[in-house]
Amino acid sequence: ELKDELLSNAPEAEELRPGLAALRMDGLVAFVATVDALAVECAGETAQAEAEVAAALLAYGGEVRGVGLAVVDEGHHVFARQPNAALSGQTRFADAARVRQGLAAFL
Length: 107
Known about the structure:
Blueprint: H1 2-9, E1 13-17, E2 20-25, E3 28-33, H2 35-43, H3 50-59, H4 75-78, H5 97-106
Antiparallel strand pairs: 1-2, 2-3
Helix pairs in contact: 3-5
């Protein structure tokens, strides 16, 4: 919802891919993402084990890099497991600790 609102109201907002948007202002960039989109963006579709996620994050060269602050809304959903891939909004990682690992690597 926030992503859609930003894209409709901010002239410098850009949807990078489904679930991931960038809002550019005064030389700064704010990213708004679902946890699923962020995980796929930075760790790929298949990484699950800690070593796989760490390797994917190390190899990541995309735009979501060097983030200085992360705000997690609805944390009880973000750090919950959603095994049904058809339902978005919760982490696809079997171990929700991978979400924290990813956030720590970005910051």
